[in-house]
């Protein structure tokens, strides 16, 4: 795999990124270390985590994923030099009182303190890509569709304040590049505009939900990022497992569905966008299309992300070595123009049910 440049930064990463939010909840530490080592052996040089992880978030597992990564780095000579590590500072609390005491804000001091914590947990001197996990301002996200101006929070920290905090970290040599997550076209544009106007760090990336079931990024945000030179890091390319086919026969809670898979094990995830009935309906259509064309559902879903011009590096999340190898092996799968047209036809009927 050739590496790709992230935005206008000096970071060059593989087009596959290992996501780690399952580490510490669905994946125990020894298995997580094995997955990290195998990923590195397979040539993946990019891993993504967050201070909030593991997922689903709980007070008991807050910060745990970064600690698992730090322990692996400490016992794996040479690994840190081969890897680019991305992590995220949590945005304002969303029903999580263990995150900054449930604060509805994210101040400059919060960002600096969170970064220091991530550095200590991961036992590293620098974070290659430091991202804001979700916006401070009021935006529709995590399944929200409509912007509501009555929900504005005018006293929260500004984009400029957040950028100045990132500037402090970059100048201190603790962060190499910065990015956003779960952002909107307005947010991306404002971060870039203010950075250029004030001489502050320019965002390199945006990490948003993007898959066959959630192509909202293509409705204007892709043009924004293309014209401003911001790279997309799509998360959940398999839509929490819906696009693997594992739920096709019996639904999310079928008797023969493994009790260890996310949408079966955690009721909270079924209440989110992934648990919408129409999401499963659409997933079954795409999964059947994959099989009609001699592919596994996962191959089709991953190839869709791997080959899109909008995508820089696709974040894959796994529980087992087998899943890791299957996801990496899907690299190189191509989709014909005719198959892409069939994908678009399904989207026209069932428009982004897990956006």
Question: TL;DR?
Answer:
This protein is of the alpha/beta class. 38% of the residues lie in helices and 12% in strands.
Describe the protein.
- By secondary structure, the chain is of the alpha/beta class.
- 38% of the residues lie in helices and 12% in strands.
- The chain has a domain at 4-207: NADP-dependent oxidoreductase domain (TIM Barrel), CATH 3.20.20.
- It is built from 13 helices and ten strands.
- Helix 7 links the parallel strand 8 and strand 9 (231-232).
- Helix 2 packs across helix 4.
- The longest helix has 16 residues, at 277-292.
- This is Aldo/keto reductase.
- One of its GO terms (molecular function) is oxidoreductase activity.
- It comes from Rhodoferax saidenbachensis.
- Keywords: Oxidoreductase.
Write the layout of secondary structure elements.
Elements: E1 4-5, E2 12-13, E3 16-19, H1 29-41, E4 46-48, H2 64-75, H3 79-82, E5 84-89, H4 108-122, E6 127-132, H5 159-171, E7 175-181, H6 185-198, E8 203-207, H7 221-228, E9 231-232, H8 262-265, H9 267-270, H10 277-292, H11 297-307, E10 314-317, H12 321-329, H13 337-349
Parallel strand pairs: 3-4, 3-10, 4-5, 5-6, 6-7, 7-8, 8-9
Antiparallel strand pairs: 1-2
Helix pairs in contact: 2-4, 4-5, 6-7, 10-11, 10-13
Key words describing this protein structure:
two-stranded antiparallel ribbon, 38% helix, alpha/beta, eight-stranded parallel sheet, 13 helices, TIM Barrel, NAD(P)_OxRdtase_dom_sf, single chain, 10 strands, 355 residues
């Amino acid at each position: 795999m050739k590496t790709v440049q992230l935005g206008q930064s000096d970071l060059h990463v593989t087009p596959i990124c290992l996501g780690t939010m399952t580490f510490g909840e669905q994946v125990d530490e020894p298995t997580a270390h094995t997955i990290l080592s195998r990923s590195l052996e397979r040539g993946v040089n990019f891993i993504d985590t967050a201070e909030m992880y593991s997922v689903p978030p709980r007070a008991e597992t807050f910060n745990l994923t970064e600690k698992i990564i730090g322990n692996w780095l400490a016992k794996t000579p040479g690994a840190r030099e081969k890897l680019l590590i991305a992590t995220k500072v949590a945005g304002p609390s969303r029903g999580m009182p263990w995150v900054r005491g449930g604060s509805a804000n994210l101040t400059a001091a919060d960002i600096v303190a969170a970064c220091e914590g991530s550095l200590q947990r991961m036992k590293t001197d620098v974070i290659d890509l430091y991202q804001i996990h979700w916006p401070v301002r009021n935006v529709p996200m995590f399944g929200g569709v409509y912007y509501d101006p009555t929900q504005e929070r005018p006293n929260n920290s500004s984009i400029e304040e957040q950028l100045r905090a990132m500037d402090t970290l970059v100048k201190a040599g603790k962060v190499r590049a910065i990015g956003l997550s779960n952002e909107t076209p307005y947010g991306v544009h404002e971060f870039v505009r203010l950075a250029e106007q004030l001489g502050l760090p320019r965002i390199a990336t945006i990490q948003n939900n993007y898959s066959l079931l959630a192509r909202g990024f293509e409705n204007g945000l892709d043009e924004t990022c293309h014209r401003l030179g911001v790279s997309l890091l799509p998360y959940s390319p398999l839509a929490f497992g819906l696009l693997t086919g594992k739920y096709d026969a019996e639904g999310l809670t079928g008797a023969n569905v493994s009790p260890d898979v996310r949408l079966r094990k955690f009721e909270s995830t079924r209440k989110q966008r992934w648990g919408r009935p129409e999401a499963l309906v659409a997933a079954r259509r795409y999964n059947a299309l994959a099989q009609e064309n001699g592919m596994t559902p996962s191959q089709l879903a991953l190839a869709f992300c791997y080959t899109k011009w909008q995508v820089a590096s696709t974040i894959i999340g796994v529980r087992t070595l087998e899943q890791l190898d299957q996801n990496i092996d899907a690299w190189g799968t191509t989709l014909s123009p005719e198959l892409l047209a069939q994908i678009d036809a399904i989207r026209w009927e069932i428009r982004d049910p897990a956006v």
